[in-house]
Amino acid sequence: MAPLARAHTPESVTAAFRQEGIEFEPPANWSQIADDDGRAISFLSPKVDGGHDAHMFIELPYAVGDLSPEQELRLRSIREGEYLVDYVVRRLITQRSSRGLSYALLEYEATKFKRHMPAVEQRMLVPVAGSRRMLVFGSSLRWAARRNLPLFERS
Q1: Are 104 and 73 in contact (CB under 8 A)?
Q2: What would you report as the CA-atom Rg of the chain, rounded to the nearest whole angstrom?
Q3: Where are the domains of the chain?
Q4: Calpha distance 14→50 (Å, rounded)
Q5: What SS3 state is found at 94?
Q6: What is the three-class DSSP state of 118?
């Protein structure tokens, strides 16, 4: 019988991020879930009317090829548009965070197939040591976007 895979906890994934020199500050009242492979962590907003109005996903850094962060986001944008209804890019820019970190940002509006609810989502690619990047993904229902989007960029 094969040994069972080790269960990853939010603490073990957060420790892996710290080893990479990456710190982040999710909102204190959001729940945390570690990915099965221990390479990412998700944060869920408190439930509103039986569901979460926002979630954030942060992936450990990965090696990249020759594409700039903006080029990679453009490709992701094309792929995203194929799977979403009413997909509209709001902005695709490079900017600096309040901590002085430069990152590429893709923000778009769309209606999710499964939920049939309009959402505003952001994908951020943050360069880290060497030629690696970290993906930060945030999704908010459109009606709560004004409150949630600043949390994604600040984290």
Answers
A1: yes
A2: 16
A3: 10-154
A4: 28
A5: strand
A6: strand
Angle at 108 between CA 122 and CA 78, to 5 degrees: 100
Is residue 42 within 8 A of residue 18, CB to CB? The reply is no
Distance CA 101, CA 80 (A): 25
User: Rounded to an integer, what distance in angstroms lies between the CA atom of residue 152 and that of residue 144?
Assistant: 13
> CB-side exposure of 52: number of CA atoms within 13 Å?
16
Task: CATH number for 10-154: choose from 3.40.1160.10, 3.40.1000.10, 3.30.110.40, 3.10.20.740.
Answer: 3.40.1000.10
Q: Decide: 124 and 96 in contact? Cβ < 8 Å.
A: no
Dist. CA 138–CA 43, nearest whole Å = 9
Q: 10 Å Cβ neighbour count for 121?
A: 23
Q: Which pTM does this prediction carry?
A: 0.79
Residue reference for tokens 């600043």: 150
Residue 51 phi/psi, 5-degree rounding, is -145, 170
Q: What is the pLDDT of residues 18-63, one digit of tens each?
A: 787 777 777 788 888 888 887 888 888 888 777 778 888 888 888 8
